[in-house]
Structures are given as structure tokens and as C-alpha cells.
Amino acid sequence: MKRTDLLTPLGIFIGMTAMIAAVYLNAAGQGELTDFLQVTSVLIVLGGLSAALFINFSLEDMKMLPRVMKEAFQTRTHNLQGLIDTFVDLSTKARREGLLALEAGLEDVEDPFIEKGVLLAVDGIEPDIIKDIMMAEVVAMEERHRKGRVILEKSAEYAPAWGMIGTLVGLVLMLQNLEDPSTLGPNMAIALLTTLYGTLLANLVFTPMAHKLMLSTEEEVFVKQIIIEGVIGVQSGQNPKVLEEKLSAFLPDRMKVEEEEQEEQVE
User: Which label site among 91, 119, 128, 130 has the fewest CB atoms less than 10 Å from its CB?
Assistant: First the structure.
């Protein structure tokens, strides 16, 4: 189940607040916060970054960017114990009533990946073939996620580079007008602020988002591996208790301890 992840906007807010607070405290009596707002620097970084992405990716890839960034503001919750219980129930039903009986109860299964696996098992397909089919879907999912994530990763590479290009532009302008002291400050501001903007975008937005999406993909792959093992266990007619023990090996130690404590309380 997807839900809004408050940590992503909170992290960006904390980062920006800390930087603004540091600037304000050090600029008190010496300057204004508006001194750190430079339209020319913004145009160089964002314009250059957009141009580089347009060259690097196709139009279809770029259409994915809003959806990919939206995913960074969402998180998936996985009830691993509930997932294991589902397969224990399926295994119990299969041993009592046969595999064909599982098809009738699939309307209660919300995960289409579980439904697909169970239907393959009901059709009598060999376990190795079921595993190959389901792993192919996992690989395809990983590739789709990678293609979306690589846009953010490239953005994290290009943003500081364009910040450096803006720095070079500012330095050239400054050196060309050394005879006019009034231009040194604005040109130096362009030189430094473009690097600041590019580095800030890379390290506060693009790189953290890309890494968060990578962790999300790894977690989703992990859950699908549990599902595949569960489907194979049900198809091969494993004892429900054995299947539960096998799938419980995927649980984090913390969840295992909680489960043991709950069993002790029941006893």
C-alpha cells in the first residue's frame, strides 16, 4: 500500500532551513538574504541542466520524470507477516481441497503478483518454469525503475557541472572588467552562486531521491522473492508449518522477536 512519505519533504525543508538560517546569522548587519538570489545563476544551472537532460534522454524518458519524482515522495508499506500468513492459508487450503480450489479464493488477494503466481500453480506449470516466469517480471520491474532513477542520477551529475560552468562564466566576466570595480561583485556572485545552486540541487534533491528510489526498488524485489518462494511452496504441496518456517527466514530479526513474544503471550 502506498502512502505519502513525509521524510522526503521534511528532509528538503530541514536542509533549506539550515542553509538559510546559517546565511541569515552570518549576514546579519553585512548583507541580505536576497544577496543569495541570482537570476542569472538560476538560468545557467536550470537551463543547462534541462538542455543536458534533453540531449541525454528521449522524450518518452523525460515524460517519466514527474512520475519518478512523485515516487520519491511516497513509500510502500509491506506487511511481511501478513504475506507469510496468506501463503500458509493457501498452502493449507491446497493440501485439503487441491490446487484447483485456490482459484475460487483469489478475489480476496489484492496483490496481482500473488494472483499471477497462484494461477500459474493452478494451471499445473512446473515450479522451475513458474519461478522463471515470475523472475522475468521482477527483472522487467527493476529495469523500469532503473530507467526512471537514472534521470535523477544524471541530474545529480549535470547540476554541479553546470554550476561550475556558471562559475567560469562569472570569472571571465570579472576578468574582462577589472578596470571597473563596480562589476567585480556582481560577476563574482554569478561565479559562486551557480556552483552553490548546482551543488545544492545535486546533494539535497537529486542524489537523495535517486538513492531513496533505489532502496524502494530493492525492498520491492525482496518482497517479490518472498512471494515467489511462497507460490513454489504452495505448488509443490509443502507442509504449511514447513512453509511458514521457510518464509519466516526472510523476516528481519526484530519482527521474529516480536512474533515469538506474541506466541508466548498466547501460550
Answer: 128
Residue 260 lies in a domain: yes
pTM above 0.70, yes or no: yes
pLDDT tens column, 69-125: 888 888 888 888 888 988 898 889 888 888 888 877 777 777 889 889 988 988 888
Q: Is residue 92 part of a domain?
A: no
CA distance 8 to 205: 9
* 205 contacts 153 by C-beta, under 8 angstroms: no
Q: What is the number of structural domains in the chain?
A: 1
Tell whether 117 is covered by a domain: no
- Whether residue 248 is contained in a domain is answered as yes
Domain residues for 153?
2-81+126-266
CB-based contacts of 135: which residues, under 8 Å, 6+ apart?
228
